[in-house]
Structure formats: C-alpha cells, structure tokens
Known about the structure:
Blueprint: E1 11-15, E2 18-25, E3 32-36, H1 47-53, E4 58-62, H2 80-94, E5 100-104, H3 106-117, E6 124-128, H4 139-146, H5 148-151, H6 156-168, H7 177-184, H8 190-201, H9 206-212, E7 222-227, H10 235-244, E8 249-253, H11 260-263, H12 265-276
Helix pairs in contact: 1-12, 2-3, 4-8, 6-7
Amino acid sequence: xxxxxxxxxxxxxxxxxxxVRWDRLGHAGxxxxxxxxxxxxxxxxxxxVARSLARDHQVFVWDMPGYGTSEKAAGQEVxxxxxxRVFTELLGHWGLERPLVVAHDFGGAVALRAHLLHGTxxxxxxxxxxxxxxxxxxxxxxxxxxxSEVFEQLPSVLHRALVREYVGSASSRGLHPAVLDRLVEPxxxxxxxxxxxRQIAQADQRYTDEIQGRYGEIGIPVLxxxxxxxxxxxxxxxxxxxxxxxxxxxxxxxxxxHLVQEDAPAELTAALIAFLQQPL
Length: 280
C-alpha cells in the first residue's frame, strides 16, 4: 500500500460544471485508458493502479467537479447526470473516441450513463464495485441527503470525525492513516464541507433507474470486479450486474471491501491488465 504524497493533477479543463483537474501518465501513442473514481473519493485512489497501467498504456486520470482538487462551488451541479455530461466533454477534449475505461463506484454510473445516454464509445469497460443497480444508498447516505443543509452547519471537528469514519468504512482491512488523511482532506475546509454534503444531496437513484433497463444493450467487452467483503454494496449486486450485461465477466476479489484499490491493489491491477490486454 502506498500513501504517495506526491500525487498531483497538473492540468485543468473548464467543463459545464466547473474546472476539472486532470493529468496523463504514460507515453502518447499507447492505448488510452481512462480511470473514473467514485464518491466520496478522488483520482488519488487510482494512484498505484494508474502507474502500473502506464507501463503499457496512456492513462488519463481526473477529479470530478466537486471532488478532490477540482472546483467546488455553491450551487454547483455535481449529480450523476452532470458528471456523465462532463465525462463526455472530457473525452472530446482529450480526442479519445474508443478508450478503455475503468470506473469505480459512482464513476461506474457516470461511465454507463455516458455510454448509454450520450453515445460515448469505449473499446472495453471495467467496472469496480459500481453504483449501478437499485436500490442503493445506505441509511446514513439517505439521512444526510434529506438533511444536507443541517449537516453543512456541523462544527468542523464533528464534520471531520464523521467524514473520517465514513471514508474509513469503505475499506475492509483498514486504511493507512496517511491514506485516510489524504482522502478526507478535500472535504475539510469550508468549501469542502459544503461540497461533501452537496454531492450526497444530489445523489439520486433515478439517474441509475434511467439506464438500468438498458444494460442488455451494451455490446462491448465488460469486466465486473467486486470486493467480496464490500459492506457498502454487497457482492451479490456484482453478480446480478454481470448477468444483465451480455458476455460480461465477473471477477470477485477476496479480502477486499468497497475500496478495492486500497485493500487489494495487486489483485485488482492483475485482473485489469489481463482484461485490458486481451484481444478486444
């Protein structure tokens, strides 16, 4: 497990939902791979996987609007609908027509919406514990969503404790303290605290309900990876999703919770490399 304090995104794209920080690893001309993070995370969770994939691919990483080092602003739209549009805009900005796409959690829904609703084309799609099937959202998630304006007013010390506990629960093995610090850091100043509750308030199952009935239309190679110890979204959802996508392959990862990238980075990277390098 690497804490990696040097992970930085050095480039900026101005999207319809605010400035997006992004970067690219690997050499131009190699097959492009785009990595999408989930909520309440950032591209930081992909650091080890991204560097491994960059040996044979050109890897694009980004923080969604309202997350990580990207813009956080009052009134900002950061819903799944908005993120799907932004991802489509980014692919155009990067000039990528058929990239390989790897998406985790909320990012899985973003990639699926962009493909099914906005016509983005992928060479192949790997989904890692994605938000894709109803019902989703824990009791805590729903409580915060219904009372986000109240939670925004929490004293900073209580907010910090809540976010640390919530983020930490995504790992079955427990996060290194420095990793946990890095994951919660974007949410701890005043704009970050408001942004944390804003993204939960705008998380609505209707955005996956709109596409769930269309998973049978997906005609590209799909890999579904899932941490067997995921307490946020049960592994049974992974098997259910793989059964809905024609030809999809299901890859359970033992000893991993929802944050597979942190709990089992080597196992996840091996599964992704095998999938991405097969003839597609």
